[in-house]
Amino acid sequence: MKERTKVTWVEWRGPVHPRTESTAAANKNDESRKSQVMLLVESSGNRALLTQDLCQFCDLVEPSAPSLNPQSFDMAIVDMGGLRRWKVQLLDAKQREEPVFLPVILIISPSELRYPFKKFWDVIDEFIISPINRQEFTERVSMLLRTRQLALTQRSHLAYLVNYDRLTGLPNQNLFIEHLTDSVRDASILNQQVHVTVVHIPLSRTMKSLGHRGLERVASNCSTRLVVLLREEVLVARLTTEEWGLIHRPGETLNRVLEICGRIQLLADDSIPVRGEHIHLAPRIGIGVYPDDSSDANGTLDCAMAALSEAKGAIPVFYSRQIQHEALRFIRTESRLHEALNKEQFELWFQPQISFKSGIPVGVEALVRWRLPSGEYVPPNEFLTVAASTGQIQRIDRWVLEKACATMDAWRHDNLRLERVSVNVTVEDIDAPDFVEFVQKILHQYQLPPPSLELELTETALFETNTKNLKKLNLLRSDGISIAVDDFGKGYSSLNYLHKLPITTLKIDKEFVENVMNSSTSAAIVETIVWLAKKFKLETVAEGIETKDQAEFLRSLGVTTAQGFFYGRPMPESKLRKWIKDNH
Predict the structure, then answer these.
(1) 165, 212, 375, 440: which could form a disulfide with 238 (CB 3.0–4.6 Å)?
(2) Dihedral sign computed on CA atoms, order 147, 150, 152, 154
(3) 3-class secondary structure, 61
(4) In this predicted structure, what is the pLDDT of residue 9?
(5) Residues in domain EAL (predicted)?
């Protein structure tokens, strides 16, 4: 019977010799588990006697089904009645367990020796004549169980040799394909993708200069560093001498896969010292995707290998040209983001917010824009997604917050009075240990009263707020800073967080506002949001207003503040100054 080896994501314990590994595992099993003996004896007298003796060193088990699972017992003891009843099932269990020994002992009386036993030879391994010599019985049972345990140990050792890389202890290609097959099966049920990454690290030059042992040391070090870099997010295997395979979790996004590939490239940052030499790594990466590139596990791995053959540098290559185009755009955007942050290519634009009651501007939302040296602008939804995936969003958000407060201070000195500026923040921003201190420092630096700042969070961010972050938001709210829920109604709308979180404002999602005049559902949702806001004593901001009819309808519902192209598009600070003067 084929033994299925269980491997979890990045289940890895460092380089081990297979004999050491398998022997240690077998010894641990021997110590922690008694042998399981199935007693199929119909004679009540013999059954009672055998039970008394066996219980001292074995666990007795009963058949749990008409068939017998060979992995549920280590030995079967039968008498003639039990043998006649269970012969077929015992033979099936022994055949399924082959080549591992599964002993069966027959208890037989002298009178029964006259019966022909030829038809039972393929089932019976030993027989004992009753009345039973208890010492002889115990010794023979113990001997057969030791033989069984030795066979199990050898099977574990062989399974390890078949499924694991001898040097690194990582799964090899056989086990990799098994688990990829499982992932593909799960993904097909859930209609998800599975990304397979193959990493090539050239070691042939190491072999030539430092020999086989030098190569093994570098390969072992690479495996260790890969597992540390990737933590528990993928299954890592060593496919060949120079290639490692990764199975990403079913449903993993392209951005997440690229972020993981970026971590793999960190292998190139540090050399590996071997015999006084410093070996520099230059990983190449190929990626195949189920079901886009292939409909099965082997085919998907082949596609990743084919993509790898086209990889020439640090950029991962996808088998699919469409995905490759998206990946290249992501990687180039990420690279240019670093330059944009360092060379101050970002601009702060503002979109005005109008009081429905007075009709005058009461605030602005600060929005980041990225202007390339060529004068072109990168779409915000394109670069902000990349920034969020690569951990650069916090630097951008902090730049926006400080720039917005500095602009508010400049307007105040120029007598351009607005009640507040609204700035978007993310969970990653709030997670930062110094988030509260940073916000307080900026307000103090520009001598702005806390009510002049509003922090906007999406519903998803608020839903994921933990106790520590809730304390931070409460502290900022107690200072007088406003907290707004962006895109309300589109995510995890909950009365519970309206009650628990220090929210001051609900921003109605523009999708509902855009359809409010032609969709009764959208109108009902907006009306419900306004009603909730009034009950919880919260302000409301309607985003995305583009027509006079929309504005009038929202005003009639009691929405507090308007925002949208009907009043003013996002604009640079210089244009906003003129807009404010014209609309005051």
Answers:
(1) 165
(2) negative
(3) strand
(4) 45
(5) 330-584
The answer, yes or no, to whether residue 8 has pLDDT greater than 60, is no
- Contact 431/469 with Cβ under 8 angstroms? yes
Per-residue model confidence (pLDDT) at position 243: 92
542, 563 in Cβ contact below 8 A?
yes
Q: How many Å apart are CA 395 and CA 318, to the nearest integer?
A: 30
**What are the backbone angles phi and psi of residue 77, rounded to the nearest 5°?**
-120, 125
Terminal alpha carbon distance of the chain? 84
What are the backbone dihedrals phi and psi of residue 508, each rounded to the nearest 5 degrees, phi first? Answer: -70, 130
- Integer Cα distance of 431 and 114 in angstroms: 83
CATH topology of domain 335-583: TIM Barrel (3.20.20)
Question: How many CA within 13 A on the CB side of residue 84?
Answer: 6
Nearest to 171 by CA among 2, 6, 288: 6
- Copy the structure tokens of residue 489: 């109604």
Amino acid, single-letter form, for residue 75: M
Q: Which CATH number fits domain 18-163: 3.40.50.2300, 3.40.50.300, 1.10.10.2840, 3.30.1520.10?
A: 3.40.50.2300
Q: Highest mean pLDDT range out of 238-247, 374-383, 398-407, 485-494?
A: 398-407
The answer to whether the beta carbons of residues 67 and 29 sit under 8 Å apart is no
Tell me the domain boundaries of the chain: 18-163, 173-319, 335-583
Q: Which of 95, 92, 103 is nearest to 149 (CA)?
A: 103
Query: 545: which 2 tokens?
Result: 């207003």
Among 564, 350, 493, which residue's Cα sits nearest to residue 554? 564
CA-closest candidate to residue 463, choices 438, 415, 498: 498
User: What is the rounded CA–CA span in Å between residue 563 and residue 422?
Assistant: 12
Place of tokens 């220090």: 502
Looking at CATH, the fold of the domain delimited by 173-319 is given as Alpha-Beta Plaits (3.30.70)
